Amino acid sequence: MIKLEKKIGSGRHRDCYRHPEDESKCVKILYNPQDGGFKEVKRETGYYRKRARQIKQCRSVPNFHGKVNTNRGEGYVFDLVRDYDGEISKTLEHYLKNEAISQAQLQNKLYDLRNDLIAHNIATMNLKVYNILYRRTGYNEGYLVVIDNIGESEFFPVASLFNFLHRRKIDRIFSRFFHGLNVEQM
Description:
With 186 residues, this protein is an alpha+beta fold. Helix content is 35%, strand content 24%. It has a five-stranded antiparallel sheet, covered by helices on one side. A three-stranded antiparallel sheet has the order 6-7-8. It is globular.
């Protein structure tokens, strides 16, 4: 059993802790199963198992390393996204609030993220500024990583079977995201 102590973030259904035995990993613990949390975790972990090969090749999605027993209940182990200097990567929301990313940089980073998800045939339910991290690979360099809502909600996910449908789905998700940010699409 792993003893979790250092919480590094919270979402709608899960808390995220540093893995006490591996600095390159984090453990997500479900704390809100009644409000769709259990269903979301089941869907997401199933998608990770189904698309493990594509996700391992995609820099824009952290890898899933399975379940673990913890002092806080069952946990789900993922890569911990860190910057080049060892710091835990911050959310896109942080960079937008602090005006630490220009509109042009934001457009380019989102376009790169979109292309990466399309190239590796990875689906996301939606995009939120607090579920995307900006992983800095140098002082003024980096890329975006989606850390939540990976997968598909459809009973029969037709879009994942055909590249052109997958691309259209990803384009719709990004279009809504761009519109919500009031950023011009490329």
